[in-house]
Amino acid sequence: MGRGSGKDIVNVPFDVEVKARAGFQPLAYLKQLKARTSHSGELGFGVIRLNGQGEDAAEYCAIIRLADLLPLLIIKYGHLDKEPTEADIDRCFSCGSYMIRKCLTCQPTITSVEDVD
Question: For position 1, what pLDDT does the model report?
Answer without folding.
Answer: 44
